[in-house]
Amino acid sequence: MADYDFKLANDTASSDSIDEVISALEDDDAFIFRYREQRIEEISRHLKEVKKNASEGEYGYVHTVESESELMQMTSKLNRVVIHFFLETFRRCSVMDDKLRELAAKHMTTKFLRISVDKCPFLVQKLNIKILPCVLSYVNAIERDRIIGFQQLGNQPDNFPLYTLEERLKKYDVIPSISETNYKNATRGDVNGLRSDSHHYRDEPDSDLDL
């Protein structure tokens, strides 16, 4: 197998440079074979986890947590967790709940939780939560992302497209970028998964939802 300069494929590389590296890799049969086998194994593990979680009935929905201790315990023991801090009286929190329910039904290896800020005053203060809705994402008990309000998810003041939330969670590996479509592509030797994600998100609060 030829030696390739993978230093090109970083955040500062031009898209043309990255495309040149990918084009070279696509012409290397040995690389494609190894990549294909690796992807099939990775996706197979993912689908087995999906099947296990579906059979146990603990995934596929948004679970309402009733206490801080329960929330901390679940966050510490689960691999991927999305937590929505909400108030029932905030309409935007209801909108966020609806979006998260849709994602929970699609992504069976991520646990989706929600807790009212009234029931977790210690965590609200410790995590410096001042604006709702607030969605925190954890991978292996480490915070990977924080979504505050809707401004990070589009320009609509009272709603946002589901795909913007889904893509953001994928960006931080809170929901894996793996599906049955990926499996079919991998079995065909498709290496498009190497392409980098060029999306960038702004962190701007919705000031009208201060607690």
Automatic annotation (TrEMBL):
GO MF assignments:
G-protein beta/gamma-subunit complex binding
Domain of life per record = Eukaryota
The protein's name is Phosducin domain-containing protein
- Which ranges carry the Phosducin domain? 21-176
Which Pfam families did the record assign? Phosducin
Q: Which InterPro entries match?
A: Phosducin_thioredoxin-like_dom (IPR024253), Thioredoxin-like_sf (IPR036249)
Query: SUPFAM superfamilies, per this entry?
Result: Thioredoxin-like (SSF52833)
Q: Where is this region: Disordered?
A: 189-211
GO:BP terms for this protein? cellular response to pheromone; positive regulation of transcription by RNA polymerase II; protein folding
* Matching Gene3D superfamilies: Glutaredoxin (3.40.30.10)
Family, per entry: Belongs to the phosducin family.
- Which species is this record about? Eremothecium cymbalariae (strain CBS 270.75 / DBVPG 7215 / KCTC 17166 / NRRL Y-17582)
